[in-house]
Amino acid sequence: MKISNETKIGALTTVAVVFLILGFNFLKGKSVLKTGFFLYANYTDLKKLSASNAVFANGFQIGTVYGTTSDASLKVITVEIKLNGDYQIPSNSIASIETSPLGSPDMNIQLGSSTTYMQTGDTLRTIENGGMLGAISQKLGPLSDQLTAALVTLDTLMRNFNSLLDTNTKGNLRSVISNLSTASAHITTSTISMEKLLDVQSGALAQSLSNVSQFTGNLAKNNNKIDSTLTYLQTTTRNLSQADITGLINGFKQSADSLSQIINHINSTQGSLGALINDKALYNNLNNITRSLNVLLDDLRVHPKRYVNISVFGKKDKGDYLTAPLPVTDSTQKP
């Protein structure tokens, strides 16, 4: 059987159209056979969300928007989400639509903390976001009201201020401004003086800080000596605190009393030492004994034969006894 060229062209055209439709659906994220993991979410405003828009969770794309459907009232719009795999989505997760002024909107699933996970065909909890512009407008709305109230208050204040500015008040204001100018000049002079004081090279404060730095440096160098001195002081004070000061004072007092008694005995003539010090007759006797002893020693030195009774070639020396001590002479001279 011979097939005509028209039939061949028609068949090829049909196949091409079918592949074109399949390819277009594939690019949009749809397949001919509806298979995979599907979730659903209901919104009142899609914010221009359409099929093939990305679906993210924790910043990672887990799927795409498969399609959107709505009833005749357009009050509830259902979004069909196709996940790229069997991801574990907690049952208390929340889906929201996020818009961007520079790109298409996308869906973000904020994962919950539940230990039970959603199954294919389940519906996610949703939250309506106003988007970036909506959030900005919500924040700018109260600010605009406050700015309007502030402008009204400022206008009232200016009106009252203008009513107060009579001739005398203006003159007073000029005087105040002149005084402020003079005060500003004084402040400038004080600032220059302060700059000189705070100069790093020649300022008095810098020199004082340098002296303080040198002082602290010397303290740091002698830290060991200071520690040793403090240790010695601490040891000394500890020993002093532990010493029996009262007993020591009592001992000194007893010693002073005993010394006083000894001095009293010495001053009296009752004891030997007191008699020796206070009795002049005893002093004279001791002086005579000393003189007699000196005479005896001098006579023994001058006439030794008189006292040593040994004679080999002579006789015993007699006579010429000394009656007074000899005068003191040089020890090198012979008698």
Calculate the terminal CA-CA distance, rounded to whole Å.
189 Å
Low-confidence stretches: 331-335
Round the mean pLDDT to the nearest integer and report it. 79
Describe the sheet with the most strands: 7 strands, mixed
Number of DSSP helices?
Answer: 8
Q: How large a portion of the residues is in β-strands, by DSSP E? A: 5-15%
Secondary structure: number of strands: 7
Give the topology string: H per helix, E per strand: HEEEEEEEHHHHHHH
Looking across the biggest beta sheet, what order are the strands in?
A: 1-4-3-2-6-5-7
Helix coverage percent: 40-55%
Shape call? elongated
Radius of gyration: 64 Å
Query: From the helix content, strand content and strand pairing, which structural class follows?
Result: alpha/beta
List keywords for this structure.
335 residues
Layout of strands and helices, then pairs:
Layout: H1 5-27, E1 37-43, E2 54-57, E3 60-70, E4 77-83, E5 94-100, E6 103-110, E7 125-127, H2 131-164, H3 167-197, H4 204-221, H5 223-242, H6 245-267, H7 272-278, H8 280-302
Parallel strand pairs: 2-6, 5-7
Antiparallel strand pairs: 1-4, 2-3, 3-4, 5-6
What does this structure look like?
The chain is elongated. Among the domains are: 1-33; 34-129. The termini are far apart. It has 335 residues and is an alpha/beta fold. The protein is built from eight helices and seven strands.
Short overview:
By secondary structure, this protein is of the alpha/beta class. The chain has helices at 5-27, 131-164, 167-197, 204-221, 223-242, 245-267, 272-278, 280-302; strands spanning 37-43, 54-57, 60-70, 77-83, 94-100, 103-110, 125-127. Among the domains are: 1-33; 34-129.
